[in-house]
Amino acid sequence: MNPFHSQSCNIAATRLVISERGISAQIIRKSGLAVNQTVYLDFIKRGVILFIKKHHSDGNFKFWPDLASFHYANTVVNYLIDQNIRFVQKCENPANVPQGKVYEKGWRAKNLDELRNKIRLCTRNMDQNLVQDFLAFTSKRLKNIRRNGLIEKR
Asked: InterPro entries, alphabetically (predicted)?
């Protein structure tokens, strides 16, 4: 028996794919103590790929993971390449560029049903036009950062 394992350590990982063309269905999965490359690859297969086929079949997109190590695991990178998914390479992915990233924040829920309901409520209440405008603006911000570099305001 593992002394560090507890029945109360039910951690769920959730993903939602958002682009200026739409919002995916939620994907929630029990992940044990942490998300790893296996869990993340499952998200890619069940969420990202389906979303891209539905909303970006013209190939006009670039997938942008954050810098979590499992996002760039060999199995994940090889799968993305095999699927012809253009993605931001790790060496091109800025570590701390809040001007370019979308804010992420962890959520707490008592169980998976409560988490699903919270996500449903949030996605139902999202203004699709606002999301699309925000993501279009994010693309413009990134192009500006690429052209002009970062200018830090203090």
From this structure: RNaseH_sf
